[in-house]
Amino acid sequence: MYKYTIARQLATKRVITNRGDEVGKLTDLLVNEVSGEIEFLLVEVDRDSKLIKRLNPKERIIQVPYSAVTAVSDVFIVDERELATAPEIAQ
Questions:
Q1: H-type alpha helices, the chain
Q2: Is 56 a domain residue?
Q3: Coil, strand, or helix at residue 36?
Q4: From the CB of residue 61, how many other CB atoms can be counted at a distance below 10 Å?
Q5: pLDDT at residue 5, as a whole number
Q6: Which Pfam families does this entry report, sorted A to Z (predicted)?
Q7: Per-residue pLDDT tens for 52-84?
Q8: Cβ atoms of residues 22 and 51 within 8 Å
């Protein structure tokens, strides 16, 4: 039950860069089943975001490497440099 409470609290949190640019909203997490570590955030992109327009991802949902996350509070903050070089986004 505790896991589901945490999942509900995380759902739809905003994801922004360390420079304050909007990326989108968290939709899910990809977790390594063996280690239990979070590997990626699944983020529904904000098509109005200047950053997203510049990166021009092909999909509406992108995978943001968890290594790009620098802080979590009311929002997820990700390092823009890691985001721009992630192969799941920069195609």
A1: 2-10, 50-55, 80-85
A2: yes
A3: coil
A4: 13
A5: 55
A6: PRC (PF05239)
A7: 888 888 889 999 999 999 999 889 999 998 887
A8: yes
Using left for φ > 0, alpha for ψ between -120 and 50, and beta otherwise, residue 84 falls in alpha
Angstrom distance (rounded) from CA 38 to CA 23: 19
Residue 58 falls inside a structural domain: yes
Nearest 10 degrees: Cα torsion 86, 76, 78, 57: 40
**Exposure letters 64-82 (e unless 16+ CB within 10 A, then b):** bbbebbeeeeeebbbbbeb
> Domain range holding 56?
13-85
| Calculated CA dihedral for residues 12, 17, 20, 25, nearest 10 degrees | -10
Percent of the chain with pLDDT over 90: 49
Number of domains in the chain: 1
Q: Is 4 domain-assigned?
A: no
The vertex-55 CA angle with 51 and 58, nearest 5°, equals 125
